[in-house]
Design goal:
It is built from 3 helices and no strands. The longest helix is centred in the middle third of the chain and has 7 residues. It is elongated and about 65 Å long.
Length: 66
């Protein structure tokens, strides 16, 4: 596990399955969320209109048998 300053704070000790536990201070992540990449500033909801407006499946027209 890596902290917001890119320091390793916890890591597995073997190549086998392990549970890795570390304390996380989510307030330390705020710098990255607010300054490096602000999702609210870059969000563009307009392209999602066709997806969110659909209420069900739209089936294609049947193909005529030849």
């Amino acid at each position: 596990m890596v902290d917001p300053d890119e320091r390793i704070v916890a890591q597995a000790q073997t190549l086998g399955d392990e549970v890795v536990v570390a304390e996380c201070d989510l307030d330390r992540c705020r710098k990255g969320k607010d300054k490096m990449f602000d999702f609210g500033q870059h969000r563009q909801p307009a392209p999602y209109g066709p997806i969110t407006e659909r209420a069900g499946v739209i089936e294609p027209a049947p193909v005529a048998a030849e």
